[in-house]
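Changelog-adjacent note: as of this version, every example in the card shows the full chain rather than a window. The one below runs 127 residues end to end.
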Amino acid sequence: MPEKIYGRVWNSRGILSEDFHDAFIAHFYYPPKPSLRPANSIPLTVVVSSAILSPVEPQIRFKIRGTKASYIKYGLDVQEEQLKYEPPMSLVDPRFAVEPKSLEGVLTTLNEKGEMISSLVPTERGD
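Full-length structure tokens:
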């Protein structure tokens, strides 16, 4: 269980009412656990956030960072855009819910020498 929690929600686009929340951030603070980490370990802070606005291309969908690996996934849901086609793409079309390679996630890990190794992670077809 976290020792402390902080959270906030807000209307980042200023549309509709002030009660229309489209962004959030949450911080979870965990004390050091000497049994799980070295004696000189520091507390763990987990930050979870989401916002509809992000001035970056390609859009970052997920970003997960740890002490031995990180994963970044780019792009928004391709299905939403495919359903806006005129006519909409058929749900049985073999291209439906298939992301382009340019939106693959990037997994970066540390090898036994402490070197960073990055590899692309193909996205599974949606349903």
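Structural remarks: The radius of gyration is 19 Å.
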